[in-house]
Amino acid sequence: MPLALLALAVGAFGIGTTEFVMMGLLPNVADDLHISIPSAGHLVSAYALGVVIGAPLLAALTARMPRRRVLVALMVLFVAGNAVSAAAPDYHLLMAARFVSGLPHGAFFGVGAVVATSLVAPERKARSVSLMFLGLTVANVIGVPIATLMGQQLGWRATFLAVSAIGLAAIVALLLLVPADHGHGETGGLRGELKALGSLPVWLSLGTTVAGFGALFAAYSYVTPMLTGTAGFAEAGVTLLLALFGVGATAGNLLGGRLADRSLRGTLFGGLVSLAVVLALFPVLMRAEWSAAVAVVLLGMAAFVTGSPLQLMVMEKAAAAPSLASSANQAAFNLANAGGAWIGGLALAAGFGLTSPAVAGAALAVLGIGVAGVAYGVDVRRSRTLAVAVAASATTGHGLLVASHLPEAVSAQDAGEPARRR
């Protein structure tokens, strides 16, 4: 694999660390700034809001710029946001800085996924995306625990300075390892980008992301009370279990990349079905410590098997604007985070038990399977319609003109199968 993927992974590692570390530093930030824990929790929401707004907006505005330059500029914004976070004298400036830190998140992964796939052969596209996402999953195993410990021992501001340093390392790696390009002009400006994003298959792909990863976050947002209140773990042991989730997510991400290069659609359906089964079994698996630990690992694996297929699928559905579509998919991930946590919280507040958020997550996974099934049906119908048009026009002398669009329809039907298998 090209070394440029390492540069993308370093950037992903920094982004993953700053996204999740705030959850472990909320008490420290609250004490230092003399605010309540719920108010400190709004800093997590500010980052997520930055991701949702910045992902499609920055991707669209930079669509005609050279991709390496875009990636570097996004990391500069990332470094600036984290540096200001470290120096923020009060809550309001920290809130603004966290919002700014989130702005480049989605666009970096979106543009980075396009760069990653452009560096490899068609049959290795999904694997290249999974290697970029490796930085994100490894951040949950290594980056977040170390950054949290640093914040607890040296102060939370030291954590954001360290994240800024990771961002600077990513900038250097991007400049040294990512090949220079000369602009890509995917569409005719912002209007063209948005038009390319407006097709039904693209929105169905984004809907699959929201439902599928909403299933994950419905359960994962409340995994700590499940582990302590049902499985019987002490609070001190939860950190290790969350690291095990990161191990499972890393394994699932790599496995999903390999499998998706063979069958993108099959990997997506298989991952969603596995996720639904694992979540449905949570009430049983949480009855003992050993099975609860297994459940946490399986949850990470099942969820992140679908990461690369979902990213690649939405890119292929919006072939005229892959950077914008890929970035919009990152916004969908964050909507899934917020929506899944909300739905899981409703189940918990209704008094259905500590493991009820996982059951709600299983229902969301089934919904994701349904949306993916509808997407598949739409693709098949469009492909058949075009095939009929080709056959009908063959006798009029326009068959070659219609047939010239057939590969596009086949791509829609197959949704990302390697070119060598078409």
Strand content: under 5%
Q: Give the oligomer, counting copies of the same chain as homo and different chains as hetero.
A: single chain
Distance between termini? 24 Å
The biggest sheet, with number of strands, parallel, antiparallel or mixed sense and barrel status, is: none
- Helix coverage percent: over 70%
Radius of gyration: 22 Å
- The helix-strand sequence is HHHHHHHHHHHHHHHHHH
DSSP strand tally? 0
Mean pLDDT: 85
User: Spans with pLDDT under 50 lasting ≥5 residues?
Assistant: 399-422
SS summary, helix count:
18
Shape: globular
Question: How would you describe this structure in keywords?
Answer:
mainly alpha; 422 residues; 82% helix; 0% strand
Question: What this model shows, in words?
Answer:
The protein is mainly α and 422 residues long. It is 82% helix and 0% strand. The chain has helices spanning 4-33, 37-61, 67-87, 91-118, 125-154, 156-177, 189-197, 200-220, 223-229, 238-260, 264-280, 282-285, 289-304, 307-317, 322-349, 356-393, 399-403, 406-414. α11 (264-280) runs antiparallel to α16. The radius of gyration is 22 Å and the shape is globular. Mean pLDDT is 85; it is low at 399-422.
